[in-house]
Amino acid sequence: NRRFVLNRRPQGEPDEQTFRLETGPVPVPGEGEFLVRNHYLSLDPYMRGRLSDRKSYAAPVGIGETMVGGTVGRVVSSRHPDHAEGDWVVTVGGWQDYAISNGALTFPLAADMPNKSWALGVLGMPGFTAWAGLTQIGQPKAGETLVVAAATGPVGAMVGQLAKHCGLRVVGVAGGPEKCRHAVEVQGFDACIDHRAADFAQKLAQAVPEGIDIYFENVGGKVFDAVMPLLNSGARIPLCGTVATYNSPDLADEGRADRTGLVMARFLQQRIVLRGFIVFDDFGHLYPDFMREVAPLVAAGRIVYTEDMTDGLENAPRALNQVLRGENFGKKVIRIAAE
Ligand code: NDP
Predict the structure, then answer these.
(1) Nearest residue CA, atom 23 of ligand 1?
(2) The CATH fold of domain 127-282
């Protein structure tokens, strides 16, 4: 069994010292446990937070512990009443070939999942995050304008497509012309602005002639700076993530003075509603509603999905850095083993 353990907490971007690949025997399940062969591993921005011992909503991974991660795999042997040998499951198997589970946070893979790995993306945690944040906090209304960054990632792509189905004007923000083209031509967004362009803030303003009613916050940083003056009275901000700063050892190092006063004054004057959420903590009970509503849209091709698959567990550390840098194109998944 190969597994990546946390070797050293990174300062800034994770490097060769961050993870250590260990090899050992395949573990044997005890009473009430099962052994699962991991086939697909999800790589997600939140993983950067687990590498840090900064205070957060979830405990960090300990030094020497297996790196956490959502997985799709197959039960190899079982001493658990609910999970039989041969069953496909969605679980948190981590960055390794095989995992032992006691059934916590484990679900049977839906029989009609179009591709098994999609349970980690469009019909899994990121897709559900988009749906929950948009419907529960964003409260979209036809004719409004929505802005979402990381527009071709699994969260942003779903947010924008659902909002289009609700009749909103949808403006994406993404890194580079290729992703922007994809957001418009494949995902059906009305416009998509490259955040790396020198005149980004000006272009964004031009793309939202009637201001912004929903800003689905995925990135923070300069995208948020450009959005803030464009927020309409009564705008809503589902505060989902701030990936632009996940690698910053010190949040004050983004080259800007403390702007809290400015930000809060703007929110007050415009009566902005901002609510943070951790998808399964806050909205987990709505997952069946999400599946009922969105799985048929995916099956019918009315929601398109882009997956960015990398083969080989050994490539997981590099691939996580790609996600944090924006070098992924679509949902980043590691194929650990062929089906
Ligand atoms: P993605 O697969 O879209 O990967 C992250 C993307 O962020 C990159 O591809 C890049 O896209 C963009 N990005 C990175 N740095 C910057 C930057 N400096 N400025 C602008 N964009 C940047 O991620 P997900 O769709 O999986 O996640 C999106 C967000 O949702 C994250 O913040 C994540 O933490 C959050 N999240 C929150 C959950 C919750 O429960 N609250 C649950 C799941 C996700 P590009 O090249 O286009 O810039």
Answers:
(1) 153
(2) Rossmann fold (3.40.50)
pLDDT at residue 252, rounded to an integer: 52
The string of DSSP codes covering 171-212 is EEEESSHHHHHHHHHTT--SEEEETTSTTHHHHHHHH-TT-E
Ramachandran angles phi, psi of 296, nearest 5°? -65, -35
Does residue 244 line the site of ligand 1, with CB under 6 A? yes
Ligand 1 and 195: CB distance under 6 A:
yes
Give the nearest ligand 1 atom to 153 CA.
3
Mean pLDDT value across residues 317-335 = 98
pLDDT 10s digits, 298-322: 999 999 999 999 999 999 999 999 9
Ligand 1 proximity of 174 Cβ (cutoff 6 Å): yes
Distance, CA of 34 to CA of 121 (rounded, Å): 24
Judge if the beta carbon of residue 200 lies within 6 A of ligand 1. no
Whether residue 90 contacts residue 109, with contact meaning beta carbons closer than 8 Å, is answered with yes
Q: What is the pLDDT of residues 221-279, one digit of tens each?
A: 899 999 999 999 999 999 999 999 899 876 655 555 567 778 888 899 999 999 999 99
Residue 332 has pLDDT above 70, yes or no: yes
pTM: 0.96
> Judging by beta carbons within 10 Å of its beta carbon (0-12, 13-18, 19+), is residue 39 exposed, middle or buried?
buried
Q: In CATH, what is the architecture of 2-121+306-335?
A: Alpha-Beta Complex (3.90)
How many angstroms separate the alpha carbon of residue 219 from the centre of ligand 1? 6
Does the Cβ of 238 fall within 6 Å of ligand 1?
no
Length of the chain (residues): 339
Domain boundaries, the chain: 2-121+306-335, 127-282
Residue 260: predicted pLDDT: 78
Question: For the chain, what is the mean pLDDT?
Answer: 96
